[in-house]
Write a structure and sequence with these properties.
It comes from Friedmanniomyces simplex. GO terms for molecular function: 6-phosphofructo-2-kinase activity; ATP binding; fructose-2,6-bisphosphate 2-phosphatase activity. Keywords: ATP-binding, Hydrolase, Nucleotide-binding. In the C-terminal section; belongs to the phosphoglycerate mutase family. It is a single chain. By secondary structure, this protein is α/β, with parallel strands linked by helices. The protein has 14 helices and 14 strands. Helices cover about 35% and strands about 15% of the residues. The strands form 3 sheets. A 6-stranded mixed sheet has the order 2-3-1-4-5-6, with helices on both faces. Helix 11 crosses helix 12. The longest helix is centred in the first third of the chain and has 22 residues. It starts with about 40 loop residues before the first strand and ends in a 17-residue tail after the last strand. The structure holds adenosine-5'-triphosphate and 6-O-phosphono-beta-D-fructofuranose (F6P). The site of adenosine-5'-triphosphate (ATP) has 21 residues, from helix 1 and helix 5.
């Protein structure tokens, strides 16, 4: 077989589409493509309403889907002139404060418009309070003049307790308050919010001509207006699924399989005796980490994940989307056999592992696309344990930890190791627990055709996987 590269942006050619905007002009004979749609997602809301968190999540999600996105945070532009302003800086009758804040917004919008001029730059998130109608109208007019669509996303929340918790969680450690007493910082930030409250105008019927999504009380109510095209609706659907309840996600590969022992890839083999031993130990490992929290277990439809999850005393769900990357004509072969029979393909896969698609099979890019509903469901859910396969686990891990497409297909994910991911505002915490059951290593270094090698007991291994905390 020849190297088969998946075209960039497969995700953006859905089978069904909603009405396209005037900027989505290019057609491919099948339907309208959305590559030319450029969208500015404009955050709206009082301080400490989760705008920056939402903005960063949207960018990470789009990046993971190979949609080029960037966040423009007006606060960081403002900080160059005014690094540590007191609350009075945000008083709207403070003319110097007003001037500096408008200048920061202008600088961010200018940079954003410049960024949009490069091909493939599709979605920018303009992260600021954008709390008045006049400010929003100005942004819309500026974007209109550049042929950029606008999608206003307002986070509205009046739960005083939640706002105070947000301030304590993220604001007292913000660069605005470096070196200051956290109590004083929280008090000052409360004052800052009051300044904004005096002039804040929520999105309403006066802005009925605008495309917007208003998220009230962390998604307990969502109002959407004039959503125009496929990409906008994807972003809005993603936003509707987000929640901020504390939870963890556990991920594990299946126990060692008979194919792992023989070095074969793919297939639907049973667990090896050591794999079965891991399946016996897994419930203990999970309960040590999760305590008595309610959990749901997701497996693939392949025997080795079902056998691994068999003893777990939780509700189980099996997903076809969690099946291992399909290695097509190479299914059941060892890496050495693939190299001997298809040397060009073997080299091509090493060259660009993320995009290489096995003949009759899949690439990592394909796997990410089929995992999109899994990510959406994970965002909606609370505590989930996923028992899946090497390539699939790499893709899920990459989403949560922000690992690049170049790195993620090469990450080492040992067998018989449970990974706990706990999302926090702005970072995901990672913890690894190894069961003391040896297993082969199925990791293959770039350029090698290594047989699956015996590894020392997992406890003896230093984890070479990427960082313990995501950005
Ligand atoms: P600022 O205007 O000062 O930049 P912000 O609105 O960007 O504030 P963030 O820094 O994103 O606020 O606040 C993060 C906090 O908001 C986290 O503690 C997070 O749990 C919480 N949060 C996330 N989403 C929401 C939401 N929809 N409503 C209220 N709080 C939220
Ligand atoms: O060897 C175990 C396995 O899950 C195979 O079934 C699969 O083809 C492979 O790992 C995916 O890893 P890589 O993409 O590194 O070949």
């Amino acid at each position: 077989p020849n190297l088969r590269k998946v075209p960039q942006g497969d995700f953006m050619r859905p089978a069904t589409r909603t009405r396209m905007s005037s900027h989505s002009k290019k057609t491919n004979g099948v339907g309208v493509q959305v590559e030319e749609t450029r969208i500015c997602v404009v955050m709206v809301g009082l301080p400490a309403r989760g705008k920056s968190l939402i903005a960063q999540k949207v960018v990470r999600y789009l990046d993971w889907l190979s949609i080029n996105a960037k966040c423009f945070n007006v606060g960081s532009y403002r900080r160059t002139a005014t690094p540590q302003p007191a609350a009075s800086f945000f008083d709207f009758s403070n003319t110097e404060g007003e001037r500096l804040r408008k200048a920061a917004a202008e600088a961010a919008v200018n940079d954003m418009c410049q960024w949009f001029r490069s091909p493939g730059h599709l979605i920018a998130v303009l992260d600021a309070t954008n709390s008045t109608k006049s400010r929003r109208r100005w942004i819309k007019e500026r974007c209109d003049s550049e042929g950029i669509e606008t999608l206003f996303v307002e986070s509205k929340c009046d739960d005083e307790e939640l706002i105070m918790a947000n301030i304590k969680e993220v604001k007292t450690t913000s660069p605005d308050y470096v070196g200051q007493d956290p109590e004083e910082a929280a008090k000052d930030f409360r004052e800052r919010i009051k300044m904004y409250e005096r002039v804040y105008e929520t999105l309403d019927e006066d802005e009925a001509d605008m495309t917007y999504c208003k998220i009230i009380d962390v998604g307990s109510q969502v109002i959407i207006n004039r959503i125009q095209d496929y990409l906008q609706s994807r972003v809005v659907y993603y936003l509707m699924n987000l929640h901020i309840k504390p939870r963890s996600i556990w991920i594990s590969r299946h126990g060692e399989s008979e194919y792992n022992l023989s070095g074969q890839i793919g297939g639907d083999a049973d667990l090896s005796p050591r794999g079965a031993q891991y399946a016996k130990l897994l419930p203990g490992l999970v309960s040590k980490s999760a305590g008595d929290r309610p959990l749901t277990v997701w497996t693939s439809t392949l025997k080795r994940t079902a056998q691994t999850a068999h003893n777990l005393p939780y509700e189980k769900l099996s997903w076809k989307a969690l099946d291992e990357l399909d290695s097509g004509v190479c299914d059941g072969m060892t890496y050495a056999q693939i190299e001997a029979k298809y040397p060009q393909d073997f080299a091509a896969r090493d060259e660009d592992k993320y995009n290489y698609r096995y003949l009759g099979g899949e690439s990592y890019r394909d796997v990410v696309i089929r995992l999109e509903p899994i990510i959406m469901e994970l965002e909606r859910s609370e505590n989930i344990l996923i028992v899946t396969h090497q390539a699939v686990l790499r893709c899920i891990y990459a989403y949560f930890m922000g690992v690049s497409q170049e790195q993620s297909p090469w990450m080492e994910v040992p067998l018989h190791c449970l990974i706990k991911l706990t999302p926090h505002a702005y970072k995901t915490e990672e913890e690894r627990m190894s069961a003391d059951v040896p297993a082969v290593s199925t990791w293959r270094e770039k350029g090698s055709k290594a047989e699956h090698a015996q590894t020392p007991g997992p406890s003896a291994r230093a984890s070479p996987m990427i960082g313990a905390m995501s950005k």
